[in-house]
Specification:
549 residues; alpha+beta; Dipeptide-binding Protein, domain 1; Dipeptide-binding Protein, domain 3; 2 domains; 6-stranded mixed β-sheet; 20 strands
């Protein structure tokens, strides 16, 4: 979760650090706090069924991410208004060379079973996630840490091939050391100035001893250290959490709990928000956007803003049909992004001009250039040169309002190329993610990205580095890998950003995924919610929202 406190980046005389965090606040009275907000009220939030058990290191999709962010508190958080990194469990993070980091952990943090959060809690969790035989989707987020190569081996022929990855040489990364119970020393394999910013991502959350004692039992009743603790899960229906009274963060939630409710369609969720049968929805469906109908349906209870996300169409590059970059470039240039934006989103989704969303530190405009510009003639030429035999098919989950814009995108592709383009729906987000992770996609597929942390690096490394955690299409380019490695090792964030920009341009020429539009959202809520803040990561801030019955 994103707690608030007066913290920010500070350049110290001999180090770079995060400011020391402030003390936590107090609680309220039974039923209502001093300001009249209900403290015994549970709210309901639209969500999708998590793909996996609620393990931070194995969750990189939005449905599970919402719940993980409620159950766990990492070392760093991101300001709910600006996305700036601030300390949470960490008291301070210091370095003199961007390679060795000393992290002081605040005393008094506990897991929901009452056991203390220590430096070893982070070390155990990070080693578990990085160790490749454990099959954790977020394992590559630890690739900067010294000793990662000893615990994480790559599958020589990818997830779709018959060969298996060799056994790692070690089970623990040598770059992690507990100086004492509340001091963690992290040594990286090379300088990485972005490292403190990454520590707010859920993959870096701690795990209690109970996880390692009996993982199956833990997954049935997840235990975290966040502002809410797990209550129950009904597959296909919901997940419920309740406020953890011993959470030392500030501000403390006033709501008693949250129901993350799963809907088969965004339209059904929207109807429930309009009728006050659902408390929050972070995406208004196209029917509500048409003519800005949502502004009438949800008068004085909606918000529109950009966030750190991009919507893309991915290619299964393990399928030989999609190997020719001219095909991928042709489809990108066949899409009339602005027509789709106006027709489906009433002008609220800016056409993508690169891989990195607006407002992300390090982003520059128009990286994609002509390859993201509608040009039917050039698209036809490249398509013919590629030799691809149609039709073109695009797969997506049908439970999150994607059908309309993909169908409209297909119309523009057909009009530009003169070949059929079809939308192939999959019922739920969990089902399509399972197929993507199993490398079973035979068509183009929708693949959105919301930043894990505010940096251009996060829009490149996780998706386009060979073998990276979210490189679902198995894209690989040694020149891109080398440029990303050079950027990672830059002595400062600013110098690294210039190199990341160069890497972005290299990736775009290959077009392993087509950036279609930048994410903005229109969110709505019920009449009983007050003090609603929707973060740049498109999540309701559960710590500040209040209920007025």
């Amino acid at each position: 979760m994103r707690a608030r406190r007066a913290t920010a980046w500070l350049a110290l005389p001999v180090s770079v650090a995060l400011l020391t965090t402030a003390c936590g606040g107090g609680g309220g009275t039974d039923g209502a706090d001093a300001g009249g907000a209900q403290t015994d009220a549970t709210i309901s939030v639209n969500s999708t069924e998590p793909e996996n058990p609620l393990v931070p290191g194995n969750t990189n999709e939005t449905g599970g991410g919402k719940v993980i962010d409620a159950l766990f508190s990492p070392l760093v958080e991101y300001n709910p208004q600006t996305a700036e990194p601030e300390n949470l469990v960490a008291e301070s993070i210091e370095t003199t060379d961007s390679k060795v980091y000393t992290i002081k952990i605040q005393d008094g943090w506990t897991f929901h079973d009452g056991t203390p959060v220590t430096a070893q809690s982070f070390i155990n969790a990070w080693n578990y996630t990085a160790y490749s035989p454990n099959g954790q989707q977020n394992g590559t987020f630890f690739s900067q840490i010294q000793g990662y190569a000893d615990v994480h081996t790559e599958d020589p022929d990818g997830a779709s091939g018959p060969q298996e990855a060799p056994e790692p040489a070690a089970q623990e990364m040598s770059g992690l050391r507990a100086v004492d119970d509340l001091t963690l020393e992290v040594t990286l394999s090379a300088p990485f100035a972005v490292f403190p910013t990454t520590l707010g991502y859920r993959a870096f959350s701690p795990l209690p001893d109970s996880f390692f004692a009996d993982q199956e039992a833990w997954e049935a009743n997840p235990i975290g250290n966040g502002p809410f603790r797990y209550v129950s899960r009904q597959p296909g229906a919901n997940i419920e959490v309740e406020r953890y009274e011993e959470w030392p963060g500030d501000p403390k939630p006033t709501i008693a709990g949250v129901e993350f409710r799963f809907y088969e369609s965004l339209e059904a969720a929207y109807a429930d928000v309009v009728s006050n049968n659902l408390d929050f929805i972070e995406i208004i469906p196209p029917s509500g956007l048409a003519g800005n109908l949502y502004e009438t349906d949800l008068a004085q209870r909606s918000v529109s803003r950009t966030y750190l996300g991009v919507q893309r169409l991915g290619f299964p590059l393990y399928d030989p049909r999609y190997q020719d970059p001219r095909l991928r470039q042709a489809i990108s240039m066949a899409i009339d992004r602005e027509a789709v934006n106006q027709q489906i989103f009433s002008g609220t989704r800016p056409p993508a001009d690169g891989l990195v969303a607006p407002d992300v530190p390090g982003r520059v405009e128009n990286q994609c250039g002509e390859l993201c510009t509608h040009n039917p003639e050039r698209a036809k030429q490249l398509f013919a040169e590629s030799g691809f035999q149609g039709p073109i098919e695009i797969t997506s989950n049908a439970d999150s309002g994607n059908a309309e814009w993909i169908q409209a995108t297909c119309v523009t592709i057909t009009n530009s190329l003169g070949v059929p383009c079809n939308f192939v729906p999959v019922p739920t987000f969990g089902e399509i993610r399972t197929a993507i992770n199993a490398r079973e996609m035979g068509d183009l597929y929708r693949t959105g990205w919301v930043a894990d942390y505010p940096s251009i690096e996060n829009f490149l490394n996780p998706m386009y580095r060979t073998g990276a955690s979210t490189n679902d299409g198995e894209y690989s380019n040694p020149a891109v890998d080398a440029k990303l490695a050079e950027a990672d090792a830059a002595p400062s964030i600013e110098e690294g950003n210039v190199l990341y920009q160069e890497a972005e341009r290299l990736i775009i020429q290959d077009m392993p995924a087509i950036p279609v539009y930048f994410q903005s959202f229109q969110a709505g809520w019920s009449e009983r919610l007050q003090n609603v803040t929707v973060t740049p990561f498109r999540e309701l801030d559960l710590e500040s929202v209040t209920v007025s019955e």
